[in-house]
Inverse folding.
């Protein structure tokens, strides 16, 4: 049986939220010819085939400040319709978007709770895909930590792709927006942990070899 694919994205504070065509960098699977407001949409499009079973999790910031209110508006007005249209076009197995709520508070207790909520939401045996573009400054760190937890401690969980979308913010209408595949950065943590575990003799040299960087031999 094919693994369920889980897609996770935080919902942005930005308002108005513009739609763009993201140009993929480093991963042709992320090519998407339609405009979208959410980099996770090209990920869903590129990493699913007809009949795949998927889950989608949205992270919403709650609060009375205008920024937090924007996330609810962006979720209801843009995110839900875009996800449902993508599901329809790709003919995917899908129930409904699941929501993780987090308060508009960047204290450490809030981050710990968000980490726990994301980690617990990943089921054993799932392929996980995530967008680290939006949210508070700590949110991409918390999301990455939760994915690491699921990958290392839950049975048969794999990380399929993580992405970052760079939106063109200037008034230049011809400016391009980009979507970057950041998955290698996720796996770098596991590589570093493994080097520490085996007590690599020259970890700096080993890291450069792994990254394909020039290694200068000692004279």
């Amino acid at each position: 049986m094919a693994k369920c694919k889980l897609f996770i994205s935080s919902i942005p504070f930005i308002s108005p939220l513009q739609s763009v065509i993201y140009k993929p960098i480093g991963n042709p699977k992320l090519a998407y010819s339609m405009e979208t407001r959410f980099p996770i949409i090209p990920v869903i499009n590129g990493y699913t085939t007809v009949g795949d079973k998927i889950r989608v999790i949205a992270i919403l910031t709650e609060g009375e400040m205008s920024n937090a209110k924007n996330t609810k508006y962006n979720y209801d007005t843009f995110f839900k319709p875009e996800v449902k249209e993508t599901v329809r076009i790709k003919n995917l197995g899908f129930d409904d978007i699941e929501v993780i709520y987090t308060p508009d508070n960047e204290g450490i207790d809030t981050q710990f709770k968000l980490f726990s909520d994301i980690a617990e939401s990943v089921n054993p045996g799932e392929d996980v895909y995530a967008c680290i573009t939006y949210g508070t400054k700590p949110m991409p760190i918390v999301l990455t930590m939760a994915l690491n937890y699921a990958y290392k401690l839950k049975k048969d969980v794999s990380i399929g792709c993580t992405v970052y979308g760079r939106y063109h913010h200037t008034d230049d209408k011809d400016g391009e927006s980009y979507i970057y595949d950041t998955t290698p950065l996720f796996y770098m943590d596991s590589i570093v942990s493994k080097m520490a575990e085996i007590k690599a003799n020259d970890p700096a040299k080993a890291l450069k070899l792994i990254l394909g960087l020039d290694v200068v031999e000692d004279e």
Notes: DSSP finds six helices and seven strands in the chain.
